[in-house]
Each structure stands twice: as structure tokens, then as C-alpha cells.
Design brief:
By secondary structure, the protein is of the alpha/beta class. The chain contains 14 helices and 13 strands. The strands form four sheets. It has a seven-stranded mixed beta sheet with strand order 1-9-8-5-4-2-3, sandwiched between helices. It has a two-stranded antiparallel sheet with strand order 6-7. Strands 10-11 form a two-stranded antiparallel sheet. The structure holds pyridoxal-5'-phosphate (PLP).
């Protein structure tokens, strides 16, 4: 079976370096908030561009802490795309704010032309998720934020080092949120996340909030949390970060082969917008018979997935609280009923890529 992911193979790509780093951290005797975390924060932010970084324990908490540190509070409304991930909505809700949904565009990203109709007197911000690894077209989003006086935030959990017009996602708004969940383009070997900002005050506030609200030892200035990135994960990510260009190039190679060699009219390929680089966190195709296509590929020993069959606003926790119902966002629901995720792993070999291409091309519906 060609899996959707095989994290053990990812580990084996740089096994010796990971093992050496793990031993180094274990032998150091220092496991929480030490030199690995601060070096990772420095190296990651330097590679992104002109920003600072605060490592935290996962992507959801990065969203929660990043929004809190940026002044989002009870009663605020934040505009998000209806086909985004539930964790983005949970981070907004943890701050007491409310997600307000708009439909995506043909690239599956937040459709800037829908922002105006969603703005109310409570709207504070737009939170863009650069979905599946592709940078969103930021010029129209920034223009809408300016027009309505809104802050901009970015969920970059799927878009590490995906630039828009040459500038990395994560540098366009007030703060950006990263996940380093193991499957991510930059993943660790457990949970990890980060808040990045061009405003050092925001990352400093996140550093306080993540550590019991403490600005120095035994001195607590905020009602904080324990949401720290640990030394082992930070150290292992430094290894992976040192190989990130090569890992992203591998994904690009797979995507280019899929795009060039898949030619089945029953399977619609993903589009990439001008100026928006795609880092291929996921390769998403569309087909009329979602389940039939998946069954067909399963019979050919190819695993697939759906990201996601049920959109966030139709999850029970959201329908119960806000009364959302089927039909509220038809573009999103149509996508959810037709998208299929194909295998995309930086360690896929050419035979596996060919097998997926041949199977897709011989699908008859
Ligand atoms: C778009 C998006 N936002 C947020 C998250 C949450 O990240 P984590 O799993 O690290 O909490 C994810 C991760 O799966 C994601 O894909």
C-alpha cells in the first residue's frame, strides 16, 4: 500500500542526525526552555524573514496565544474561510471571539471578495489559512483589511516557507501561527508550534503567556498557561529545518510529475494562483464520485484521505453553539463532497509516484 504518510521513512532520511541530536539533548540535562528552543526560534524566524518567533506546544495553542497577545478578546469577530481546519476555529473560540465564515475561491483559499459582506461592528480581523501549502493571494486581502480597518492574522500550519510574491507567508499580518505536527512540511516528533510576528512585543507577550504568565522567574504578570515548546522537539526541528529546502524540493518534484503526467478528465487538478507559491503540503484533486474514486485507488493499493469531509462550521460543537446548518456555505460543501487527497510525502520514490499517476489515469469512473 502506498500510504498517505509514513513518518518512519521521514525519520530515516536523516536518522543519524536526529539520533545524535536526541542524545545531545538528553545528555545536556536541560529539557525545557533552553538553548535548543531559543536557537530554533532564531533560526526559524531568520529563514522566514524579518520577524521574531516564540515556540509553543502546538499549532492550536499558537493560534490561541497569538490572538490573545495581539489583543483579541471576548465578543470580537474574526473572518475565516469556511473550508478551513477546526483548530483555527477552536483557537479563536478559546479567546472568547467568534469565527465568521466566508467561502473559498477557486484555489481553495479565502475569497477576498467575500470579506466586505461578512464585516459587522464587532469584526476585528481576518485570519487567513494558507491551505494545503499554497500561499493565499494577499494583495486583495490586505486591501480589504485596510478598507474596513481590520487586523490580519495568518494560519501558516500548512504553509511553511510558501511565499506570496517572494515574501514568506507569516509576514503579512499582525501575527502568524505555525504547527509542527509530525506530518507538516516542517514537523517534529511529537507536538510543536510557534507564533511569529513582525512586532517583537507580540512574540514577547506570547513568551510570557506560554510560561505561566511569567516575565522572569517566580514573577507572574499575566494569567498565563503552560504551553511551552520543549527542548527535544526544538532540537530535532533544527535538524529538519537545516534540510527544509531539499524536503520542499522533493514535494515540488512529486507535484510537478502529478501535474504534468495526470491527464484524466474525470480528475480535476489543483490550480496555483499567480504570485502564490505552492509547497504541496497536500495534493488535492476533485472528482465527481469521491467515495468511488477512493475505493478504486484503495483496490490499487493507494491510500487517500479527505481534508475535510465535514467543514468546521458543521462539526457538532459548532452547530450546537451557533446553529450553523447544511447549505450555509454551498461552495465549501460542494468542495468537501468532491475533494480527495493523494499521497504526497517528501520521501516518495519515482516508482511510487508513477504508480499513483498510472492509477489515476486509468480511472474510468
Ligand atoms: C490549518 C491548521 N491550523 C491549525 C492546526 C493545528 O495544529 P496542531 O495540530 O499543531 O495543534 C493545523 C494542524 O493540523 C492545521 O492544519
Amino acid at each position: 500500500m502506498i500510504p498517505i504518510n509514513d513518518l518512519g521513512r521521514g525519520f530515516r532520511l536523516y536518522q543519524k542526525e536526529y539520533e545524535d541530536k536526541a542524545l545531545e539533548v538528553l545528555r545536556s540535562g536541560w529539557y525545557v526552555l533552553g538553548k535548543e528552543v531559543s536557537s530554533f526560534e532564531e533560526e526559524f524566524s531568520k529563514k522566514l524573514g524579518d520577524c521574531t518567533c516564540a515556540g509553543v506546544d502546538n499549532g492550536l495553542d499558537a493560534i490561541t496565544l497569538g490572538l490573545m497577545a495581539s489583543g483579541i478578546q471576548e465578543g470580537d469577530e474574526i473572518i475565516v474561510q469556511a473550508n478551513g481546519y477546526i483548530a483555527t476555529m477552536l483557537g479563536i473560540l478559546q479567546c472568547g471571539a467568534k469565527p465568521v465564515f466566508v467561502e473559498p475561491d477557486e484555489y481553495y483559499q479565502l475569497d477576498a471578495s467575500k470579506i466586505g459582506a461578512a464585516v459587522t461592528s464587532r469584526t476585528k480581523a481576518v485570519l487567513v489559512t494558507h491551505l494545503y501549502g499554497q500561499a493565499t493571494r494577499m494583495d486583495p486581502i490586505l486591501a480589504e483589511c485596510k478598507k474596513y480597518g481590520l487586523d490580519l492574522f495568518e494560519d501558516c500550519a500548512q504553509s511553511h516557507f510558501a511565499p506570496y510574491k517572494g515574501v514568506n507567508t507569516g509576514l503579512f499580518g499582525k501575527a502568524a501561527f505555525f504547527s509542527f505536527y509530525p506530518t507538516k512540511n516542517l514537523g517534529c516528533f511529537g507536538d510543536g508550534g510557534a507564533v511569529v510576528s513582525t512586532d517583537p512585543q507580540i512574540t514577547e507577550t506570547v513568551k510570557v503567556l506560554r510560561n505561566y504568565g511569567s516575565d522572569r522567574r517566580y514573577h507572574n504578570i499575566k494569567i498565563g498557561f503552560n504551553m511551552r515548546l520543549d527542548e527535544l522537539q526544538a532540537g530535532l526541528m533544527r535538524v529538519r529545518l537545516s534540510h527544509i529546502d531539499e524536503l520542499l524540493a522533493n514535494r515540488r518534484h512529486i507535484a510537478n510529475r502529478y501535474l504534468e503526467e495526470m491527464n484524466n478528465p474525470l480528475v480535476t487538478m489543483p490550480l496555483t494562483a499567480d504570485g502564490c507559491e505552492h509547497t504541496w503540503y497536500q495534493f488535492i484533486v476533485r472528482t465527481q464520485d469521491q467515495e468511488g474514486f477512493r475505493e478504486y485507488l484503495k483496490d490499487k493499493d493507494i491510500a487517500t484521505d479527505i481534508s475535510w469531509r465535514v467543514p468546521p462550521y458543521l462539526q457538532p460543537c459548532m452547530t450546537e453553539r451557533f446553529g450553523f446548518k447544511e447549505g450555509d456555505y454551498p461552495v465549501t460543501e460542494d468542495l468537501c463532497a468532491h475533494i480527495v487527497t493523494l499521497p504526497m510525502m517528501e520521501y516518495m520514490d519515482d516508482d511510487e509516484i508513477t504508480k499513483v499517476i498510472d492509477a489515476v489515469n486509468s480511472y474510468k469512473g
